[in-house]
Amino acid sequence: MKIKYPLLFGLILLKSTFVAVSQEQCVPIGMLCEYLNNPLGIDVLHPRLQWHLDDVREGAKQEAYRVFVSTDSVKLADKNYADCWDTGKKETEAMQLVYDGKQLIPFTKYFWKVEVWDKDGNKTTSDIANFETGMMEMKNWRGSWISDGRDMDYQPAPYFRKEFTVGKRIQSARAYIAVAGLYELYVNGQRIGDHRLDPMYTRFDRRNLYVTYDVTKLIQSGKNAIGVLLGNGWYNHQSIAVWDFHRAPWRNRPTFCMDLHIVYTDGTKEVICTDRDWRTKEGALLFNSIYTGEHYDARMELKGWNLPGYDDSEWRESSYRSIPSAHLVSQQLQPIRAVETYAAHRMTCLSDSIYVFDFGQNMSGVTSLRVSGQKGTVIYLKHGERLYPNGRVNTSNIDVYHRPIDNSDPFQTDIVTLKGEGQEEFMPKFNYKGFRYVEVTSSRPIKLNEQSLTAYFIHSDVPQVGFIQSSDTIINRLWRATNKAYLSNLMGYPTDCPQREKNGWTGDAHFAIETALYNYDGITVYEKWLADHRDEQQPNGVLPDIIPTGGWGYGTDNGLDWTSTIAIIPWNLYLFYGDLKPLTDCYDAIKKYVDYAERKSVGRLTDWGRGDWVPVKSHSSKELTSSTYFYVDAKILSETAKLLGKEDDYLYYSKLAEEIKQAINAKYLNYETGVYASGTQTELSVPLMWGVTPENMKRKVAHNLACKVKECGFHLDVGVLGAKALLNALSENGEAETAYRLAVQDTYPSWGNWVANGATTLLENWDLNATRDISDNHMMFGEIGGWLYKGLGGIYPDSKFPGFKHIILKPYIPKELKQFEATHNSPYGKIYSGWKQVGKKIKYKVIVPPNSTATLFLPDNVSDSNKRMELKSGTYSFDLNFIK
What is the pTM of this model? Predict the structure, then answer.
């Protein structure tokens, strides 16, 4: 197919053709409920259902759908039997809807499928998907909350067990477990599931999470045993650090509640639940801290403790505990898992009792030790990011906030005592660290080799949806390092670093939100974290700048530049997923926050916050940057009010946003010179990127910003606020070449300087020789990863048609970059923007997914300005030339 408007591109666009794979059918695929695949234990009364299309034909789209929901999968497949909901045929292109059928009941599996009518009116049907409800309401819990009766300072972890007998044939069995703390669950000696660090960290005195497991195949006829091991996690933080988590108002000895629902083939049911008759005892896990490490004495192992027939006569009765909070809900997000395994890149033997392992990659996670030694041998596994000149592990860059009262709780160090019975294995259960290197020292000589220690990269197991590949090694390494840093800092909530703090710093998260969503399908994690925001928000609207928090973070520095997460993150979820629910859920919280800022503002300006944290050298006006985020929040609030039909709020907050913008420009913009404040890179880029700069001044301000960058030899001179804005402000305002040259710079100060010097994750400081703020695995400068999709690939969501229903494509093709590919798997399917230079030609390719459209703007260096093309779904190829 010839392009519709070929003459718009003159001689530069030589030819363009549509490439299509022969396929006659449109098939609905990717069936999700609440963004999860066949989830267990959902609590929501009106779950979201969605799908997308497999259809590579030109102009592929959905003309209509019909959804069926049933409790009978066989009848649904054979006869479209829908005893719960039949939407009827809906003539719409929408591919997400909210369940609105018969009221869902607890502990029930529902099956659903969708019929779609394609662009030609032909009908096809999806496979059958399912979801299963959980407790739904608090009243459905049967178990009691129990603990071992020890106080919160007692260190050994509690083990619990319960035996029961099954005398009938089982149809199904589900375990529902809620824990304040962390846990591992066993049935008949087998650990259940592959999750790590469950349940996720919340404000425990306001909301607790439970997890559902299908244990049907593990329940046996006759005697059975359930075992539960509890860890402290963030609930009972015994290690002392400056963040005062040991003083959290919820802190207590770990506790749990569990119901095991068994359905027999004869239709009868039984519930095995927690009560005082569960037995408890301490064992080999002597100490566990999510912040520092675990101490394990293998001589004290309780062999067979989670198997039926174990002699627990010396165990104690459990104790009742009050419920931690009145809000107990299902944990419905991508879990934390051990996702990747790393063998040692190198092992150095410093003596017969000191070994250092290098895994070649900085990561969040744990290590597994395999070793033989004499009984009573004590082994220390010290994890760190750096080495001393003598080759030993140096933790001085990350242990600065640890405040131990003695030497019994070393930072990022596991302590193992051997039982002396052949090869032994140890892997911590309730802890993770940030590390590349591990130093193993022992009280007696041991023999280790490179296979003795294995590293596991642990993080929220979010599906990858974005990919970058190019001919430039700096770009490739930066993209990989950014993703490794992001994943290292995703543990059911976004963190700043996986070692020194593990805190949910709000600013770090919203600086990196576009990088996150271009690369990973993380909506479930962010929706959970936004609920944490609502739990933490004070009645007057104030938010802390670490979330969750045990109380730290409500000080004077928690300004809009950080805690604007409450508005920026749900807005970006709306842009990337086209889903209003996050904005709807957060609407009142955003409004309270903006109202609080308005009350505190003077002349529509705000002057509190953390400012442009960790700058290279120039310092920028905090009032300018803080007020810009005040504008952003008010603007998002007004747009959300419009989407939700709240007309009065829309009018009020639109006016407020405009007044903030005018106040900023009146005080800080020199209209004659086009310079904000003192003209730092941050002061020029922040208002430019965030839409504060008047339309008729954007090119002038952008030109000044580009000149500033060139004066620095195409180096940056910004902190975190400028790092978020700088590349975007340049790329989106006519200075794309400057942005590109800055992005691929490999000398100090730049992103590329880090990877050029061997970094495998992003750092906390531009200066490799800095003496503070020197974590080697930080995400606050992470915008570079998202910019690659925007500034080079040109892939942008359209706020008028969010979720990439309509795609804005504005690629930039530098002459120096011979090949580049950006892929993003959107809710509608694969978006691709890439090119390869072949001789003097540029072969540029675009993929627009089914049921979506795109507007393509070719860059100035290969086409006239303001020339564009409207593209339907399909695959397009262009032969281009550079303008000489």
Answer: 0.96
